[in-house]
Amino acid sequence: MAVTTQPVQTERPATGRVTATGTRVTRWLAVACWLGAGWLLLAGLVLSPPDVVQGDSVRIMYAHVPSAWIAYLAFVVTAVSSAAYLWPRTRSLTWDRIAGASAEVGVLFMGITLVTGMLWGRITWGVFWQWDPRLTTTAFLFVTFAGYLAVRGLGGSHEQRARRSAILGLLAVVEIPLVHFSVVLWRSLHQEASVLNPNGDVQLDGFMLFTLFTGVLVFTLFYLWLVLHRQRVLWLQDHHDDSGLDEALSARRAEEGTP
Amino acid sequence: MWRVARLVAAKDLRIEWRSRVVTNQVVPFAVLVLVMFAFALDVESVLQRVAPGLVWLAVMFSQFFLVQRAFAVETSDGALDALRVAGVDPAGVFLGKALALMAQLASLVILLLVGAVLLYRAEIRADGLVLLVTAACSATAGLAAVGTLYGGLTAGAKGRETLLPLLLAPVVAPVLIAAARATEAALGTAGTALGDGWPWVGVLATFAVAFGVVGTVAFGPLIEE
User: Fold this and answer.
1) Mutating which of A107, A165, A182, A191 best tests the B interface, going by the most B Cβ atoms within 10 A?
2) Is residue A98 part of a domain?
3) How far apart are CA A122 and CA A191, in angstroms?
């Protein structure tokens, strides 16, 4: 989707003035996002029944599970875009910007996942944190992609940034399974670890399941919306870095009336 | 490739041997970390219990400095660019730097294990020696590979002193877990059986091979800027 809208945005700065990063597609997407969010709030907080065991705290699930899903989706998109950048035939800075935008949104949703998960864990398990493989791997993903964003901010040419971060984005694909596997092995050798499945003990009735799927859908729409805008902003930033000074100079000269 | 690797490794080790930065600064720092842990944790029975973990934690901290040092040598006079101009195989450079780093890390591990025996009352068993040596070798190989890779990634960038630990710490977490558990088994800490250590050596070896291969492939594109 982000790729198909690329021609629209490449033409924009040629007109000289860019006042917004929105297009018709993203405006409709925004409407869908906010309508969906309204419905999700209503369904999640009012219409859906409290859980038999957990009571009202189960409602955290409608934000927690979708944000975790988005975070993982975002990091997969980052990895795929990184690979697409490194592949010579598809090499384009667009892939790099999609990777960056997706990682930023991913870190945001991973943060939401961790915070909501901790709150939920405190209510249902009595503790904020369990050294459970899934939780630990999630935390490592968060730190890894925070590092990825730091590397993107290192400076240098756009190509330098793109290659560096693309390699780093793919390294995470090697790293995360290794982290996950070693944490699984670590916890399985420690007998005191009673791994609690955050969702396994929840009895989902039909409407709760429906609300959960609505949540996943709405969060995915938000993800698309944010990534589309963000990669356009990144494009504008790159464009500004490349030719901002030249454009400012020619604008100034035009004012002076000198060629 | 291996000839280049040997030459680069020999060059790095010679630089370290002559400049004495590692022996005069990094090694004393690592030992100091062991002493600081003792201050922080206070109880001697606790120290004995957590000695293997502390040894590897001290190795991890020292690794940050060693990696930074390994690439400061390359970037300060544009030596990395000179190597590229000379048409040297980047895979060879990667392997050479990793080998040199591994040699430094391995001597550090030996030193810290002796430190743990002296300061934390850890006991090295004769029958756990094979496990200990295998685990230490595969762990240092993995740390060296991943350290060289991320060192190359941040080489020459502004703010790399603070960025490198942020990038490297999450990646070396499996090594920290596996090496500490394997060492516990080798030393028999808290009654751990010797056989419990071998699966961890598998993790360490997988890690070393994975990042060794990835590093050999990715180092070229990484430094051609």
Assistant:
1) A182
2) yes
3) 22
What does the block give as tokens for B82? 């000179």
What confidence tens digit (pLDDT) does each residue in B148-179 have?
999 988 887 777 778 888 889 888 988 998 99
Q: With respect to residue A253, please indicate whether it lies within any of the assigned structural domains.
A: no
Domain carrying residue A80 = 27-40+59-240
Determine whether the interchain pair A185/B200 forms a contact, defined as Cβ–Cβ distance below 8 Å: yes
Question: In whole angstroms, what is the distance from residue A187 CA to residue B125 CA?
Answer: 26
Interface pTM, i.e. ipTM: 0.81
Q: Which residues of A touch B (CB under 8 A)?
A: 86, 140, 143-144, 146-147, 150-151, 154-157, 160, 163-164, 167-168, 170-171, 174-175, 178-179, 181-183, 185-186, 189
Contact by Cβ (8 Å): A195, A187: yes
Domain that includes residue B78, residue range: 2-224
Distance set, CA B32 to CA B26, B64, B69, B162 (Å): 10, 15, 19, 21
Three-state DSSP state, B158 = coil
Please indicate, yes or no, if residue A138 is contained in any of the structural domains.
yes
Whether B222 sits inside 8 A of A164 (CB atoms) is yes
Q: Tell me the pTM.
A: 0.81
How many domains does chain B fold into?
A: 1
A245 belongs to a structural domain: no
Structurally, how many domains does chain A consist of? 1
Cα separation of A242 and A232, whole Å? 15
Q: Which of A72, A175, A77, A57 is nearest to A117 (CA)?
A: A57
